[in-house]
């Protein structure tokens, strides 16, 4: 697989290190990057010049998310501040105050003006953007929140933590539905399957687990990878999951049992953060420095690796006429 020829774009995104990035889910053509320089830069994929530089923060940006219509972007900073920017006018429109330290993750609700945030302060909060109020604070984790996401139907919200727990909450009732625990590692990130009632989690021990959300039990397990797992996506193929690590892309099928169906060796040298577009056709990555790269890789139709032709030892073959031995 030729990674170089599949590169759409590479550019310097900030004057300092890029801490996070996100891609708009509607067009899959708008990108936001957050930097150690406390700025949020907005880019149109394929254009080398940024659309906006949003710089009302005084603290490094740690997390980002777009709304579903790509009309605004939300940033979370190391000092705990959450800011909402209007992308039509390139200006700050909301300040959401509540976390006191690093906002580690953000996500916009699919059907309303709400966001979920997770923090180093061990809490998860759900916010009403219009009223600028915190609707609910979820506690129970003993260490920092690593990931927080709404379920695809918008009825649940889930959070994972460095304490090894993954909690699922009912948004309306405000009560916990299930708490999964793993040990001695912890869940670094997770994704809801948009088409099936299940969830996939990435662990700090480089494994991936699949959870059935009807039975609330683990149903499959991908053994430890040789490299850190950075992202999970669910391509259009039924019962398939794509796992991106620091040196590969792997396609797994979980029915009837977990099975590796495709694997591409890809060296993402110095990779820090990675995001996959919802249509599974673009991958964006930030690296140890201040640049971002974007690749066109259709995860719905990964190329099949070509097997190398065996090399025949001609001298040995001639001494043993008729032999088909391959060294």
Task: Give the structure's gist in a few sentences.
By secondary structure, the chain is mainly β. Helices cover 2% and strands 50% of the residues.
DSSP strand count? 28
Structural class: mainly beta
**Largest pleated sheet:** 4 strands, antiparallel
What is the name of the CATH topology?
Methylamine Dehydrogenase, Chain H
At CATH level 2, the architecture is 7 Propeller
Low-confidence stretches: 307-327
Helix content: under 10%
Radius of gyration: 22 Å
- Beta-strand residue percentage: over 45%
Query: How widely separated are the two ends?
Result: 26 Å
Describe this structure in words.
The longest helix has 6 residues, at 314-319. A four-stranded antiparallel β-sheet has the order 1-28-27-26, with no helix packed on it. A four-stranded antiparallel β-sheet has the order 2-3-4-5, with no helix packed on it. It has one helix and 28 strands. The two termini are 26 Å apart. It has 327 residues and is an all-beta fold. The relative contact order is 0.12. It has one domain: YVTN repeat-like/Quinoprotein amine dehydrogenase (Methylamine Dehydrogenase, Chain H, 7 Propeller). It has one helix spanning 314-319, and strands at 7-12, 18-23, 30-35, 40-44, 50-54, 61-66, 72-77, 82-86, 91-96, 103-108, 114-119, 124-128, 133-138, 145-150, 156-161, 165-170, 176-181, 187-192, 198-203, 208-212, 217-222, 229-233, 240-245, 248-253, 259-265, 271-276, 282-287, 291-296. Keywords: Repeat, WD repeat. WD repeats lie at residues 11-53, 54-95, 96-137, 138-179, 180-221. This is Anaphase-promoting complex subunit 4 WD40 domain-containing protein. Pfam families: WD40 (PF00400).
């Amino acid at each position: 697989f030729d990674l170089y020829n599949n590169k759409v774009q590479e550019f310097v995104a900030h004057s300092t290190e890029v801490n996070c990035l996100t891609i708009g889910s509607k067009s899959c053509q708008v990108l936001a990057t957050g930097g150690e320089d406390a700025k949020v830069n907005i880019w149109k994929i394929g254009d080398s010049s940024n659309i906006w530089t949003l710089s009302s923060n005084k603290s490094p940006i740690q997390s980002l998310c777009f709304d579903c219509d790509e009309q605004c972007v939300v940033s979370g900073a190391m000092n705990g501040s959450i800011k909402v920017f209007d992308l039509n006018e390139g200006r700050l429109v909301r300040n959401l105050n509540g976390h006191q330290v690093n906002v580690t993750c953000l996500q916009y609700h699919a059907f309303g003006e709400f966001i979920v945030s997770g923090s180093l302060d061990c809490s998860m909060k759900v916010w009403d953007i219009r009223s600028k109020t915190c609707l609910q604070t979820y506690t129970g984790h003993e260490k920092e929140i690593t990931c927080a996401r709404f379920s695809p139907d918008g009825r649940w919200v889930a959070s994972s933590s460095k304490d090894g727990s993954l909690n699922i909450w009912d948004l309306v009732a405000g009560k916990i539905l299930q708490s999964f625990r793993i040990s001695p590692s912890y869940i670094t990130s997770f994704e809801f399957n948009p088409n099936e009632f299940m969830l996939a989690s990435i662990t700090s021990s480089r494994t991936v687990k699949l959870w059935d959300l009807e039975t609330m039990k683990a149903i499959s397990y991908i053994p430890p990878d040789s490299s850190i797992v950075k992202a999970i996506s669910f391509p259009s193929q039924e019962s398939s999951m794509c796992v991106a690590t620091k040196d590969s892309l792997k396609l797994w099928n979980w029915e009837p049992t977990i099975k590796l169906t495709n694997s591409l060796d890809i060296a993402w040298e110095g990779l820090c953060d990675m995001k996959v577009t919802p249509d599974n056709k673009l991958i964006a990555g930030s690296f140890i420095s201040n640049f971002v790269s974007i690749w066109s890789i259709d995860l719905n139709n990964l190329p099949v690796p070509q097997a190398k032709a065996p090399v025949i030892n001609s001298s040995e073959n001639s001494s043993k006429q008729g032999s088909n031995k391959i060294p």
